[in-house]
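Budget justification note: compute hours in this period were largely spent on complex prediction jobs such as the one shown. Inputs:
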Amino acid sequence: MSSIKCECGHLNPEGTDICQNCGRPLSTEEKSKKLADMRYDGAAIRSKTHKRTVVDKIWNFFSSVKVGVSIIIAILVASAIGTVLPQVFYIPGGGANEAQAAQYYEDNYGIFGKLYNALGLSDLYGSWWFMTLVGMLGISLVVVSLDRGIPLYKSLKNQRIDRHPSFLKRQRLYGEGRVDDPDAVMKKAAEKLKGQRYNIREKNGALLAEKGRWARWGPYVNHLGLIIFLFGVMLRAIPGFYVDESMWIREGETLAVKGAPGLYLENKGFTYDMYTQENTDEVFSEAIDRVGTVASNYQTDVALYETPEGALPGSTNAEFVKEYSIVVNKPLKHEGFHIFQMDFKLDEISAMTFALEHKETGESLGELTVNLANPEKEYDIGNGAKVELLDYYPDFSGFEDGEPQSATPVPNNPAFLFKMTTPETPEGETSFVAIRQTLEPLGENTYKLSFQKADTRNVSGLTIRKDKTIPVIVLGGVIFMIGVVQGSYFNHRRFWIRKSEDGKIQVAGHTSKNWVALQRELDAVSDYAGLPAYTDQRDKEAQTDKMEGDSRS
Amino acid sequence: MTKQQEREKKRKRQQIIRTAILAVLAIAIVYTIVVNVTKDEDIVEVGDTAPDFELVDLEGNTHRLSDYRGEGVFLNFWGTWCGPCKKEMPHMEKYFKEFEDKGVNILAVNIAESDLKVQSFANTYGLTFPIVIDKTNSVRDAYNVRPLPTTFLVGPDGKVKKIIQQEMSEEQIKAYMESIMPS
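Corresponding output:
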């Protein structure tokens, strides 16, 4: 590693613009400028100091603000494209089946849809390249902060009080002139600056007044917040930190809560209320006329049970925890889990009532009600008659090899195989009863079961969420905002005042932003202490005022 | 010269710090991506210890998976309405008796159907191996069973040897049962 030796004898690392000791310009580029580049106080950005190994090359790549900005733009563009077609979790089936999802995009959006899905744009946050981009942004933030923050910190910490006259001359606010009593002027200036809450240091007839240095750390605090935020998002991948599941539960059912081992939920009833012309004020009147119904409430009344620590799945020793009415936006909360009302299905058949009737006379021997969730083997009708339920087909879909089939376990089309025994038919008669269909497989029957009524129940769709990463994400957000405030609303201001032996006084000023306020302060000091008049040298140079912390790589 | 050496040392230290920082970040990112991309929701994987559970069979006997430690368990999740289950279960019955003496048990877990339905199914196909009903889906969730039938071959050490998410032929069932026989 080569180094640059300044006229003052100080050895500076390669890439240094302004001597870290005295403040003379070092690089030819810096020398050619009329004003000093104060962005990192002229310190060498670490990545510029050497470029040798692979690690250095990777490091330099991520240290570039240009690269960082490019990554941000790539993320923005990808996110924007991700909104063009619905994401996979919004399509029917929720994309649980990849082939099905691919088919959906192709069928609905043609070649574009196919490409869109193949590129992972349909599941943007889940696609490896998007995650890679976000990860690269994370690396960029860390590297950029270390690369610039550390040299800046060192440079400001070790800054010399008596900078070289050429350094002062090259500051934006600069003035020089002779005064009668330089010592008195310096003293008064120091006094006034102290009154303006500047931190004053003096050495060898030179004075450095400084305040608000911490504002310079704003961008780095800001980056730290972003890194913590990204870390929080990353934690979601670790098991136990993040749960997002959904489940269906029928009224009367007790089921394990998906994603929450040991928790059980009983659905005590689902309510779906609507606004009607009768029960509402004028507000919804028009809407009700237009669309017919306006929902006013979706509610699932539940009881929560929990098995003791260490209980096995399937064990039945769950203890009652609490009852709760889950309504939209008012989830049931327990042990970090939030259970939300998300969906519903109304009126699934839950029980069917039949009457045992004599076919010819139509005389009824009595009724039986089959609870579809838990059908019984035998129903005693009374009057010496009984009905046995031989088999039950919740979703009857036809016969196969003479056997009735059920397509699903859901009672969409219930069918029953009954055996009816009456005093008149002690041998028993077999009857296959389905909706709008009765078969008598073993010959003509004397009795029949005639359908009387069906009871229904509702099904609640619930979503189970747990997110332990929220505190980390909030912390990241808060630190981010602190960094923004720190860097935006506070300025790092410095004045250098220097007297030479021949009674000449030099004065220079620099601030990270808000030059007007700096000038106002300098005006007050000049008035009080009689400092030589200063000028804003940038006006002459007509150089654009770039913001501190901007890129230069 | 000493200054040169000092600087060289400093540079080396910086190299190590940089490498370490980049490595930590890269590992964190790669881990996140791999976990997210391979997240096919398989909670139980081959090689894992099969989650323990206890369920009651049609006769009222409680079966606890860990009670079978030392013997193989042919753990079959099924439903009465599922076509492939109807085909493979008679084959399972055929080998049940033969392998019971050789230390391989069959445990058929029905997913939340009614006792009557499960009983009538067992009667229809003459099934004699223990059939338990997971009324609350808690065992299904613990194994994250999606398609039916799904079969977990649990070895005598309690570890999952294989997961079969489709219908099995008679020969396959026999081979699978042999594969989890205690030696």
